[in-house]
């Protein structure tokens, strides 16, 4: 989604701003823009990629010591240059603003401002911010004060950066519900919505809190925050943190795409996530925080809230938590949960799963669950400084490293690894895990990275399959039991990046509808591990073959299914019990990736999608 970079330094900041935007491209965007101070505010915008913006900047010889830049993912108003950020306050070009998030009351504010004579040139909600700042500047004459007064009128979630033509040595940024951090460099100070945008200039980061407004000069910065009750603002200090993100972690290296890199990083990502148990003798609740044991002892059920791929991880966990720990578990799409009236149970632990920790619906759903009366929450998340991590009582950080490809891969398998640990902890606390089983689990976890490595070796066969898929317009994914959510995840991967319409069905439901769609044009991908449901699944596959459907079966070495005309089989190693869903997901990730390659789509930045969905 939208990205912000701001810079004020002793040198020309244009290269830093452009490089920052390039680093934020992965979040998804449909226009980009930049403004710098250079004897006035100088702006360039485009609906093309950041590379095109860089060309415009170079042709124009744009330079300046302070600037703000933005990638926009359209919410209010179509993607076009007029709607691209930065926005000026009307024709005067006095104030420039970039904004992430949504201003919910923009229509009312717009009306008031129009009545006061302000002219609007875009369809965005953002434009009201610039005008509000202009309005307040007329009375306060101080940009920081004007921004404070402006944000006090805004409702919604946002991060903004503002510049004033008449105060060129200063940038003001504000955070309320959307991520924003400062970067403290040798030659200047910076701001961004994501740390990866600033690694080129600094690793020293200051993460702003909700309600913070900061002013940046090239040699100093100041943060003030607004007290939610008194509405008064006072100066605060926030800790300076050394980011442990490396540039290599956010660079492609020898890979063609981030998705490819991230698929192949999974053995290491899972090993890093499980590091604390790989040499342990037992699995302790303390893995989830010092208060975890006390909270888990009182937990009578689990409610998982998540979106997208993270939701699929939750669906898999439901099978584990119920069958192994005997703990009732429900899993809900966060955007649905937050708008219904569920019955809360204080002793049901709410688990928010999110790669980014920024997904607006997941954050709101967790807050809502708390309001409804759930006593405790746990965050499973990949980003240490994210809102989700700060919001929850307990946390477990997946250590997948930055995930840049929009289609989530290593985040999913690391989430599953954590959910196996959570299941084991509850099984132990509830006396369902005798020590032999715990030891078996520890051995299984130690072998898991190698098992994933082995699963990755089927890539050449998947490439063969991918050739048959690139001309197809639809695909059906089938699974049963715990592999049904894996089929859902496989279908999501395929549709996200190859734009082939893909649907997942619980194989037992086939004859209740989707069988009507099956003909020789409909490839059917079946997840067929050698588990207790294999024989049932085989009957479902017969139903597909009998209607001429071409079958692509991901089986285990010991699944008793034979290759024949119209039945293609890829075999993983022998059945891996509880770990099976994690391994069966690997061929599906590779399939989506290779089909997208065949089709020539933009693998890492699929159309219309965003990496972190920070708006509803
Ligand atoms: C977006 C991404 C998906 C992701 C989902 C949830 O749709 O494109 O890959 O699964 O958001 O994101 P989260 O960061 O909360 O896991």
Automatic annotation (TrEMBL):
Residues annotated as domain SIS: 292-432, 465-606
In which compartments does the protein localize? Cytoplasm
Enzyme category, top tier: transferase
> Which Gene Ontology cellular component terms are annotated?
cytosol
Q: Which residues form the active site?
A: 2 (nucleophile), 611 (for fru-6p isomerization activity)
**Any one Gene Ontology BP term:** carbohydrate metabolic process
Q: Does the keyword Repeat apply?
A: yes
- List UniProt keywords, sorted A-Z: Aminotransferase, Cytoplasm, Glutamine amidotransferase, Repeat, Transferase
Q: What is its EC number?
A: 2.6.1.16
Q: Glutamine amidotransferase type-2 domain spans which residues?
A: 2-219
Under SUPFAM superfamilies, the record lists: N-terminal nucleophile aminohydrolases (Ntn hydrolases), SIS domain
Q: What GO molecular functions are on record for this protein?
A: carbohydrate derivative binding; glutamine-fructose-6-phosphate transaminase (isomerizing) activity
User: Which InterPro entries is this protein grouped with?
Assistant: GATase_2_dom, GFAT, GFAT_N, GlmS/AgaS_SIS, GlmS/FrlB_SIS, Ntn_hydrolases_N, SIS_dom, SIS_dom_sf
Main role?
Answer: Catalyzes the first step in hexosamine metabolism, converting fructose-6P into glucosamine-6P using glutamine as a nitrogen source.
Q: Which PANTHER family match?
A: GLUCOSAMINE--FRUCTOSE-6-PHOSPHATE AMINOTRANSFERASE, ISOMERIZING, GLUTAMINE--FRUCTOSE-6-PHOSPHATE TRANSAMINASE (ISOMERIZING)
State the protein's name: Glutamine--fructose-6-phosphate aminotransferase [isomerizing]
Give the organism the record lists.
Nitrosomonas ureae
The organism's taxonomy opens as: Bacteria, Pseudomonadati, Pseudomonadota, Betaproteobacteria, Nitrosomonadales
**Gene of this entry:** glmS
């Amino acid at each position: 989604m939208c990205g912000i970079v701001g810079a004020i330094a002793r040198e020309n900041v244009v290269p830093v701003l452009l490089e920052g935007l390039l680093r934020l491209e992965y979040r998804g965007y449909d226009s980009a823009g930049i403004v710098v101070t250079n004897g006035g505010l100088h702006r360039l915008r485009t609906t093309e990629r950041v590379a095109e913006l860089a060309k415009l900047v170079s042709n124009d010889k744009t330079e300046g010591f302070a600037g703000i830049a933005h990638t926009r993912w359209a919410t209010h108003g179509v993607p076009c240059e007029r709607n691209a950020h930065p926005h000026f306050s009307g024709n005067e070009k006095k104030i420039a603003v970039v904004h992430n998030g949504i201003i919910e009351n923009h229509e009312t504010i717009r009306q008031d401002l129009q009545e006061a004579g302000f002219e609007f040139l875009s369809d965005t909600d953002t434009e009201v911010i610039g005008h509000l700042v202009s309005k307040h500047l007329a009375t306060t004459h101080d940009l920081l004060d004007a921004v404070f007064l402006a944000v006090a009128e805004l409702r919604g979630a946002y991060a903004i950066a503002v510049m004033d033509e008449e105060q060129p040595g200063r940038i003001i940024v504000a955070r309320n519900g959307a991520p924003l951090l400062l970067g403290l460099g040798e030659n200047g100070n910076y701001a961004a919505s994501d740390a990866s945008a600033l690694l080129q200039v600094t690793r020293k980061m200051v993460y702003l809190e909700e309600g913070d407004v900061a002013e940046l000069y090239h040699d100093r910065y100041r943060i003030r925050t607004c007290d939610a009750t008194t509405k008064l603002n006072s100066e605060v200090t926030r800790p300076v943190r050394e980011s442990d993100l490396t540039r290599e972690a956010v660079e492609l290296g020898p890979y063609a795409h981030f998705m490819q890199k991230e698929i192949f990083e999974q053995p290491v990502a899972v090993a890093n996530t499980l590091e604390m148990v790989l040499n342990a003798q037992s699995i302790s609740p303390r893995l989830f925080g010092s208060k975890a044991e006390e909270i888990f002892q009182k937990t009578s059920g689990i409610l998982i809230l998540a979106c997208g791929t993270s939701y699929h991880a939750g669906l898999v966990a439901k099978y584990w938590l119920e069958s192994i720990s005997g703990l009732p578990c429900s899993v809900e799409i966060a955007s649905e949960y937050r708008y219904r009236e569920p019955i809360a149970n204080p002793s049901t632990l709410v688990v928010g799963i999110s790669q980014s920790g920024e997904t607006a619906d997941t954050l709101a759903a967790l807050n809502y669950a708390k309001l409804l009366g759930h006593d405790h929450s746990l965050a499973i998340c990949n980003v240490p400084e994210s809102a989700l991590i700060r919001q929850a009582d307990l946390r477990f950080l997946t250590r997948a490293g930055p995930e840049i490809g929009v289609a989530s891969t290593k985040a999913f398998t690391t989430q599953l690894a954590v959910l196996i640990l959570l299941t084991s902890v509850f099984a132990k606390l509830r006396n369902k895990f005798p020590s032999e089983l715990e030891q078996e689990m520890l051995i299984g976890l130690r072998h898991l990275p190698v098992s994933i490595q082995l699963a990755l070796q089927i890539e050449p066969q998947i490439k063969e399959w991918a050739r048959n898929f690139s001309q197809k317009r639809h695909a059906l994914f089938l699974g049963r039991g715990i592999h049904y959510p894996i089929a859902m995840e496989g279908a999501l991967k395929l549709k996200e990046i190859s734009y082939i319409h893909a649907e997942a069905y619980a194989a037992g439901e086939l004859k209740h509808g989707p069988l009507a769609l099956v003909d020789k044009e409909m490839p059917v991908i079946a997840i067929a591990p050698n588990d207790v449901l294999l024989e049932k699944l085989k009957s479902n596959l017969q139903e597909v073959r009998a209607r001429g459907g071409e079958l692509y079966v991901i089986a285990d070495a010991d699944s008793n299914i034979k290759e024949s005309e119209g039945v293609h089989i890829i075999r993983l190693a022998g059945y891996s019990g509880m770990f099976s869903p994690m391994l069966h997901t690997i061929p599906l990730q590779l399939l989506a990736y290779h089909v997208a390659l065949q089709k020539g789509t933009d693998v890492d930045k699929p159309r219309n999608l965003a990496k972190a969905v920070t708006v509803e």
